[in-house]
Design brief:
132 residues; alpha+beta; 6-stranded antiparallel sheet
Length: 132
């Protein structure tokens, strides 16, 4: 699967497949298909709208990863206060660090997209990057 194919995946709440994915589903697929990393757990029961459950899932997985500076393949965990409200992944595109993310239509008005790293970081109080 290529970056263009991932960018064509429609948003789907709790989606974890090529037919539809939420932010976590996009990160899972990008890690495997673009960076040859192992699959992250499915966490299929975690609703994207349930930020407390998302935060608990991030905390449960954090010991398996190390905190790093943004680099290609790193998971970007975005926080508002103590809650993780969004995750994405760092991509290198033509020598520029970008963020691959997806958002629920109506909330952000988009599906998968690439955004500038600085723009992504400015939208949140804190962004923590993890890699294994």
């Amino acid at each position: 699967m290529t970056l263009d194919e991932i960018l064509a995946i429609p948003y789907e709440p709790n989606g974890r497949s090529q037919s539809g994915a939420d932010c976590y589903g996009i990160v899972r697929m990008a890690r495997v298909y673009l960076f040859n990393k192992p699959w992250m757990p499915v966490h299929g029961g975690v609703e994207g709208s349930d930020k407390r459950a998302l935060t608990e899932a991030v905390r449960a997985e954090a010991p398996n990863y190390r905190e790093i500076r943004p680099q290609p393949g790193a998971i970007a965990c975005a926080f508002r206060g103590s809650l993780c409200t969004h995750i994405a992944i760092v991509i290198d595109l033509d020598g520029k660090r970008m963020i691959l993310e997806t958002d629920e239509p109506g909330r952000g008005g988009h599906g998968p997209r690439l955004v500038n790293l600085r723009y992504f970081e400015q939208r949140f109080l804190k962004v923590v990057y993890y890699d294994d």
